[in-house]
Amino acid sequence: MMKRVSSILMIVIAACMLQACSGNAKKESLSDANIKQGLPPITVSEDDAKFAVEAAEIGINDVELSNFAKGKLSNSKAKELADLILKDYLKINEELMAITTPQNIHFPFLLSSDGQQAKDEWEQKTGNDLDKAYVDKMASDNEKAIKLYEDAASDVQDAAIKAFAIKNLLVLKKHLAAINAVHDSIK
User: Fold this and answer.
1) Domains of the chain
2) Per-residue DSSP letters for 13-34?
3) Whole-model pTM?
């Protein structure tokens, strides 16, 4: 009898915990976050702003990671790839800021936790191991970016953000081709 009561009690507790963690709490909007920080609310849809923030995160990560890896890479093609990504993403990030700043969309200029984790792991790597890790990370980030930009190209409402996504989708596809070529050259 006591085991049965304990089992029932554990099920009830688990159900309550599941209910509490099921996302009933509403996530704060980007406009609300701006207002809390004393900034004006965003002037585009929440989804458009969310794309811009996610695009900025990827761009900032790839600039920081490419800049970090560039001096440590041993493969000349991987170094050229880092230069290409660095050059292109500096332009992309600058363009994104020019579009989003007047719309009160702000983003931190820091590595994401995922980017910081990659950088921390790379500090212990050298030679071919670092080359592979860098190219693999750029491939993964680029695939995510292409999906994000493709979705934005069809879903974003703001004309300037939509044009940005369409234009830079071509750059990202160029990156993917370069990444795949370098990947194939690294054993």
Assistant:
1) 42-185 (1.20.1260.10)
2) HHHHHHHHTSS-SPPPPHHHHH
3) 0.79
